Every structure is written in C-alpha cells, then in structure tokens.
Task: inverse folding
C-alpha cells in the first residue's frame, strides 16, 4: 500500500482492519470492560501483542488510558 508511512504502520493498519473484520463476522468479541482496570463505558482499543498475518489476532482490550500507559511513557509501571 502506498499510503502507509512505514512497514510497521502498514502492519498495524492491516491488523486493525483484521480486528474490524473479525468483529463484524463475530469471530472476535469486544468486551464491555477494560481487561486491565475493568473500567466500563469507555471506548476500548485492541492492544496487539502479535501482528502475525495469519491466525487469530492476539492481544487484549484496553481502555484508552490503559492503552496509553502500556504503549506510552508509563510502560514501566504497567503491571501485567
Ligand atoms: Zn483500563
């Protein structure tokens, strides 16, 4: 794809599309709460632990703040 900035970005883009497809087809279910803090009523984001092209998407559902903590500066303090 020519619109992808980097190969990594492209991979993430594909992975996100895969999540959306899986949700649409019912292969993947979006929980109602964050898998880390348990917050409900928040917009959940899928945090990928693997970007493999085949198989089921691997990762967990996190609210925006937990996702930020996990991927951003707070990474060191994030308990698994
Ligand atoms: Zn959370």
Result:
């Amino acid at each position: 794809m020519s619109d992808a900035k980097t190969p990594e970005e492209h991979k993430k883009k594909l992975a996100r599309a895969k999540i959306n497809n899986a949700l649409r087809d019912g292969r993947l279910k979006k929980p109602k709460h964050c898998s880390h803090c348990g917050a409900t009523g928040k917009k959940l984001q899928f945090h990928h632990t693997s970007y493999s092209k085949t198989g089921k998407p691997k990762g967990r559902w996190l609210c925006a703040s937990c996702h930020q903590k996990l991927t951003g500066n707070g990474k060191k303090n994030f308990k698994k």
Q: What stands out?
A: Helices lie at 7-25, 64-71. Residues 7-77 form one domain.
